[in-house]
Write a structure and sequence with these properties.
Distance between the termini: 27 Å
Oligomer: single chain
Strand order of the largest sheet: 1-4
Strand content: 15-25%
Shape: globular
Number of strands: 8
Largest sheet: 2 strands, antiparallel
Order of helices and strands: EEEEEEHEE
């Protein structure tokens, strides 16, 4: 129900995987609190449009020019997505 008509952040252009009988090459982003009792969908900033690049204040965007296909980058940053006591999704306290 939370997804219906929701504006969400999506990690796109991922390696396609079979999900529920269809191929998916994106992932809806969400975060959870430390004890995993609450999760929230990550919402785009007010006024953003589909396809806009989203960044976190205090974190410079500096992507590598070429990705190592064997290195799992998302799995490295994913543990830092959290929901605070007010239900606000954050990345490394940003």
């Amino acid at each position: 129900e939370k997804l219906e008509n929701a504006n969400v952040l999506v990690a796109a252009n991922l390696k396609a995987r079979n999900m529920g009988g269809f191929k998916s090459d994106g992932m809806v982003l969400c975060a959870e609190n430390d004890d995993k009792t609450l999760f929230e969908l990550l919402s785009p900033p007010e006024g953003s449009k589909p396809g806009d690049e989203v960044t976190f204040e205090g974190f410079a965007r500096n992507p590598p020019t070429k990705l190592n296909k064997k290195k799992k980058i998302f799995e490295t940053v994913q543990p830092e997505f959290r929901v605070d006591e007010n239900g606000i999704a954050k990345y490394k306290d940003a």
